[in-house]
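Self-study notes.
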Amino acid sequence: MFVQNSALLIYLFFTAYITTVYSSSSSESNVYEYDFYLTWEMSMTYTDSDGIIWDVTLDEGNLYYTPNLTRLELKKEDVVTLDGEQNKFIAINGQYPGPTIEVPLGAAVLVRVFNNLVTDSASVHWHGLNMRASNSTGGFATPWADGVAYVTQCPISPGETFTYKFAATQAGTFWYHSHLGMQKLDGFFGAVIVHDPTMPSYPSFFLLVNDFVHMDATEFALNFAPVMHVENKPKLDACAYPYGAPESALTNLPAASHLVNGRGRFENNTAPLEIHKVEQGQEYMFRITNAGFDDVFEFCIDDHLLTVVGVDSCEVEPVEVVSVFLAPGERVNVMVKMDQQPGNYWVRYRAPDFVKTTFGYSILSYTNSTADPTTSPEACTADLPCKSLNGPFIASPNWEAISIHKLRSTRYHLAEIDKIRGNADNIVEKFYSFSSLKYYAINGRSLVLPQTNLYQDPSAKTGVTCNDQLCDNFSCRCTYIEKLPTKHTIQMVIMHSKSTDCVHSWHMHGYRFAVLKIFYPVNGPDAIANETDITCSNDLCHDAKWVEEELGHFEVEYPPMKDNLLIPVGGYAVIRIYTDNPGYWLAHCHQDTHLYMGMGMIFDIDGESAEKTIPSNFPVCGDFILD
């Protein structure tokens, strides 16, 4: 017996001592416990009962390994295939994506993370979960468990264990992922579903969709450094400009493939795909998450309409569409009726209008067949346009775009919406502008993380001080922390400055926000115009204000509540929060490359009072300077 690939011997050596166990338990105390073991693994390999790792080959959609010159077939469940090519990845309990956490509303969740990555630190962010106290369990708020390295915790070093504990105080579709560097690109993510037992339940599919490249995060950063660092880059001819509109790129980093629950195909290979087995006449919920690092993608199912019933963790009144768009970090719940003839149908995931358009696929199957479908997407025309939710451009050929802010929350969220309505005495308005004049930044400030977590040492909170004159006029790199008043309604205008030409998505930790308005620029075959409602003194737009004051006045009815929002190129969004969750909360663009380069900021919302929640033995870290 032998190890087919010598490089894999290294992985075997470092991971042989780990027993990969996934355990979850619930008790009368309503505490759900999970153990996460982090390891580096290799796709398209198989570990036999003796611990020997073998290369796996593809042949007409089947998987094989060849011990002792005898070719043996494998089940697809026994192999992490990714897109059918060999690539290293971060596994959680040997899985890609990681195991799903599924708990009832009000549960206490305890996750022990064992970092066996040998040379890499880690952290886990619970995306969309606000770390608030639970009324049902009486548990305390745990802002320290938000999982942002150097903001809410020290990174988990190799060989260390870190325990997260939080209350599941919101129902809906969430997910978890690394919040250190660009580790999410390595596959460090998984789904979190919180069920409200008072709400109807349906048979469901959880879809974690991500763009995938054939290198790890470190290699990616090194290979794409000339593109990623603004001060060094020329005008990017590789950027895609949908419909010929200049200055309106969706991405300049096209992926090799799209994966659905860890399965996809590179180019024309025959790697096995994710299959959703359904019964004719039934109705199913698809919980779709964009777990990718850069791509905005469009989701649709051939010959089936989608009824949108939820965005992020918010229930909305039903809206029927042909497709939905999701920016990185966004989630959409759709209901789909199985009203077609038995057979297999393509489920499509398209990164639209890139120079190299990237497609991903899974299969909707009314039968037990694994054969590739022969179906086609909806034929949309100018006379019969297709409806699509959350498109990045309002004027799209043959499409009728429905903006997120046109959705209406159900009365399930009434208490939360009442809080953000506010009144003239307690509404504070703030403008935040994405820019990339010299650095990827917000309001001209490119985020430098502090040397230690902000709950650890008050004297270490400043990090790199922001020089306002430099930041406002030329852009700068600093630890951008903004203090917001507590118990106030904060209206935020999130906008693209004229200095940035790629799409961005706004994600807030610790809060979800009401979406009051999304403004799309005028785009078409020849031009795109930036917003005209807002005026600024320079291209960084650090001092934005409304052209007319009444443009910032809104009647709040039942807006959708979100924690992640696509901001159209050249446009803006108006959102609101109510500041009743103390802590230090990161807000940032959820394109990993943009955050990696500094497009983020930290809100201090009575962070000092939140320090009282920190466990007495909480890990500490920071620089050491010899006196």
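Second protein, same conventions, sequence then structure:
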Amino acid sequence: MLQRLRWQIAIPFVLLILGMIVGYGLLSGRFPLTTGSYLLIGIFGALAATGLAYLVSERITHSVKELTSLTRDLRKDQADLWAAFESFTELEELALAIKVAHDQLNLQVEDLESERSQLAAILFEMSDGVIIVDGKGNVQLINPAVRSFFEINEERLLGKSLIETFRHHQLVEIWQRCFETGQSQVVVLDFVARKLYLQCVATPLGNTQPQNILLLLTDLTRLRHLETIRQDFIHNISHELRTPLASLKALTETLLEGAMEDPPAARKFLQSMETEVDALSLMVSELLELSRIESGRVPLKLQPSSPCELLTKVVERLSLQSERAGLTLATHCDPEITPILADPSRMEQVLVNLLHNAIKFTPEGGRIDLFASQEGEAVLFSIQDTGAGIPASDLNRIFERFYKTDRARRSGGTGLGLAISRHLVEAHGGKIWAESVEGQGSTFFFTVPTTQ
């Protein structure tokens, strides 16, 4: 191309010079030159014109060649590159146009790279899973949430078929329905063994043919768990309210049917009604307390507290009750034990709940021991009784709200005390559990961090 450009510049230039020389010689008549002289002048003029044309064309073609070389590397934003462009005075407008195009291209590339980085960051940080499947059913894109849900590696996914990669018939079916109908589809994927529930929304992407499909996966496991808790709560509270309300209704009907005429009987019925109302009031009070604790609306007034003093206060508080039950109470605590960082009133509430249960389920003549011992950076509290014990099947559930063993149901109570204790201990950064052998007593443990 450059060689052709040289000739296109040189030939007209030479012809112009020759024409001017010959024309001038023929018309002037002032110089009596021979034919040979004209020929020499023509040759000399042609050579001069050719040389001048070559220099001009070389200058221009060199600039074009340099521009061509530089524009091949437009992506590089180098100062020396643009300094070179500024030197092309013969092609100043072309160089300026190329520089403007370069700047615009760079801005567009930067915008695209910024958007790409933002999209990648969003996909990486999303808690929802994202899968893009092409029209052939092959996986084109996933994010880390998908790998977590399905416990698989990204290398195993990309480029392979959806059914081969995930082996989940519901996922494949929703993709097929969306692909065939061109409409969004929704389904809940059940992973029963892992207790995992994912909502999958399949949506067509753009107007590509064959059409790509976006699969958006949202973890519903916690919502399902909360829904189960809500249903259990409604069931339990209905059951717990039914008994005292039925008792109150029966007592009221008995009084209305004539028991009021018998003062001793009426008094007995009224006392029973008072007992049922007290039980209902206690249940409502403990429910409100548990709700406040679970929602974090009960502030803890943390301060250094002596484990030994806490045990002593609790024993003194329930000593009369234990004496009436014919039980022996004893505390075991090293006076030099490290103080715990706790809300004393809340820790006392936990200990009272546990000791009260021990007194309730330990037969007359039994013994209850309270311990506090150093366990690393925490203090381990334990309450050991010689009661009837707890069945192994109930040990993992006794800290649930309203849960009662068969023996606990017969002895009354709201079934909320241990749930409250668990939340209070966990709010202090500790943990609580129980060990028991049926017929040989039970031991309840909980830990609380120390001040160190």
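Instructor comment on the second fold: The CA atoms of residues 100 and 106 lie 10 Å apart.
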